[in-house]
Specification:
The protein is mainly alpha-helical and 211 residues long. The protein has 7 helices and no strands. The chain has helices spanning 3-43, 45-60, 69-110, 120-123, 128-159, 164-186, 198-205. Helix 1 (3-43) runs antiparallel to helix 3 and helix 5 (128-159) packs antiparallel against helix 6 (164-186). The longest helix has 42 residues, at 69-110.
């Protein structure tokens, strides 16, 4: 590929990456708001169900409205599942795209067009605040959501309240997706097939993008 075409492709790819990051940020806000609403519903169901019923009455002029806890609870589970699926997909896409962008920068550098905006320069002297943010994205969110879903799943199985089959299915999917995302993002399973020593395998098994 001509160096000019390669650089144009690099710019287009980087612009696409910026759009992915913007989408991830929007999904992060939506996901956190959904988690807060879900926690509010569990801790204070009367208040939230009353607010929802009042909202429907005011905006749709329906007098007899009775949305109970079970309906809202099931709806919140699947809303959370939807946002989680979208969020995990975009985060993994961003990580994969960074690897591709770094490869393009290395190829351009080989052709005497030194560029390291997202490669060497990005990884060197990484700010502490970004390290903390990265840990929250990669560890905090999946662990927190998987713990919340597992706790709720166990509690529902004990009480047997609500739409137990639908709720359990949704919560189980949330838990599984969170574990899969955590594994894909933070664990190097392929390292166990390498010929390095056991201690080095253990060190390299967990990916820590922190300086």
């Amino acid at each position: 590929m001509e160096v000019e075409n390669l650089y144009d492709h690099y710019k287009d790819t980087f612009q696409q990456q910026k759009e992915y990051i913007a989408k991830r940020d929007r999904l992060t806000i939506s996901l956190l708001l959904t988690v807060v609403l879900f926690a509010t519903l569990l801790s204070n169901p009367e208040t939230l169900t009353t607010c929802v019923n009042q909202y429907i009455k005011n905006n749709y002029q329906i007098e007899k409205v009775m949305i109970d806890f079970s309906i809202l609870h099931t709806g919140m589970i699947y809303l959370l599942l939807w946002f989680i699926l979208q969020y995990y997909q975009i985060c993994l896409t961003i990580e994969k795209q960074y690897c591709y962008i770094w490869g393009l920068e290395e190829e351009l550098t080989k052709r005497n067009e030194f560029i390291s905006r997202e490669g060497l320069a990005y990884a060197t002297s990484y700010p502490l605040l970004k390290n903390v943010a990265n840990v929250l994205y990669a560890w905090g969110i999946p662990i927190g959501i998987s713990a919340l879903s597992l706790f709720r799943l166990i509690n529902e199985c004990k009480t047997g309240e609500g739409y137990i089959i639908l709720d359990s299915l949704g919560l189980a999917l949330i838990f599984i997706l969170s574990l899969l995302y955590f594994s894909d993002r933070n664990l190097n399973w392929h390292i166990w097939k390498s010929n390095i020593g056991p201690l080095n395998k253990l060190k390299g098994f967990i990916k820590l993008d922190v300086d």
